[in-house]
Amino acid sequence: GAVVSQHPSRVICKSGTSVKIECRSLDFQATTMFWYRQFPKQSLMLMATSNEGSKATYEQGVEKDKFLINHASLTLSTLTVTSAHPEDSSFYICSARGLADYNEQFFGPGTRLTVL
Amino acid sequence: AQTVTQSQPEMSVQEAETVTLSCTYDTSESNYYLFWYKQPPSRQMILVIRQEAYKQQNATENRFSVNFQKAAKSFSLKISDSQLGDTAMYFCAFMKHEGYGNKLVFGAGTILRVKS
Questions:
Q1: Which candidate in A102, A106, A111, A113 is best for mutational testing of the B interface (most B CBs within 10 A)?
Q2: Do B44 and A49 touch (CB under 8 A)?
């Protein structure tokens, strides 16, 4: 149990376009989802926390207008990178937490974004 | 703010040998959780082991065990009988015990290579 999926797994886009990444909890209801960014051989950097039905809480230094997060249902959160630029190229990972255990996050497999 | 320090950027171990990865953390909290996550080349984050700070007994999961020293704020991971599949990046992480909005704070990671 506790499976989280992400779609797409890889995406390549042109500079200036927007890209949407989906994060789904497949077998549980996720009250909270987290979005991370990871550069090669580096740690995960938390970008934002989203709770179902409310606005996301962004970490300091993360542009909320650039990284739009929507958590419209208990099984789906989306991250939209607006007007993407090459410096937005990275590995994006989501995690989800359900009601049963506040203290465990289940991670998606990640999405590799390349902006040309 | 909480910080997590992993002082070993890279380590290597021979197959079947034992290796210990170090982690220290800084917090003023008394109740919290500590985690070790594994990120293999697939980049899927996998929970290895979890320790609750109020439990004195060190957590164990098969070949993985921790040495939790609360007073010293140390949380090392021991991998016994290392296997080639243990090759991965390992992250130590801290989570405050604050219910709904608790977030993971990750260390910088240790790349572990298991050699045959």
A1: A102
A2: no
